[in-house]
Amino acid sequence: QAEPARGEEFDFVLCVGDDRSDEDMYQLLKAWHARRAAERAEAVAEGREADAAPAPALYLVHIGTGATHAEFCLESVIELRKVLRGMASISLKDQHLHRS
Question: Is the pTM of this model over 0.90?
Answer without folding.
Answer: no
